[in-house]
Amino acid sequence: MTVITSPTTSATRTATIPAPATGSGTEISADFETFLKMLTVQMQNQDPLNPVDSSDYATQLATFSGVEQQVQTNDLLRTLSGQMGTGGLAQLAGWVGMQARAAVPAYFDGAPVTVVPKVEGGADAAEILVRNAAGNEVQRIDVPVAGGPMSWAGVASNGTPFPKGYYSFSTVSLSGEEVISDRPAEIYARVIEVQVAGGVNTVVLAGGRNVPVTQITAVRGGSTS
After folding, report:
1. Which of 64, 126, 164, 165 has the fewest Cβ atoms nearer than 10 Å?
2. pLDDT of 31-69, one tens digit each?
């Protein structure tokens, strides 16, 4: 006797179940639904004279369980992340009005900017290199190799104040005439707001720059500068 198997049945029986996705929760949920549909069709349309081996079913069910667990885990992580973000934001609220230190450009509005040089060990001279928002050098200032905070007045050598705007600072460390490092210098800026941006706790510094909390290296009492 000849047994005729429909193309649909054969294709369904030999189909493989996709492995759990490693992307976003949305992608995993989509694969989860696809898995259910494929498994149901496979059970309904398998060849009764050549059914799927029980060990194959066990493997597929284990995959199903793994996908389901991954979906639940991602949901839980999203919930915990939201709770931690909100809780951290409440703690960071105390930073508003204080000064945070980070290696970011500073907004100059006419008031002095506190700069913290990062002098390389072994240097016998150092200077602060000041650049404007366009990245152009506007000033070089000699600083002690011992480091320590300094106040940048934002005034050119001829006494003319620099225009308002963003300025970045870097520490150039020298050994003799040789530059041994050129590292971003940190600045202090007043915190005007804390917020969650893209699931990350951030602070908004004077001038509007948004900085992740992980880039903040120190916080001190506030001032008008």
Report:
1. 164
2. 667 777 777 777 777 777 776 666 766 676 666 666 666
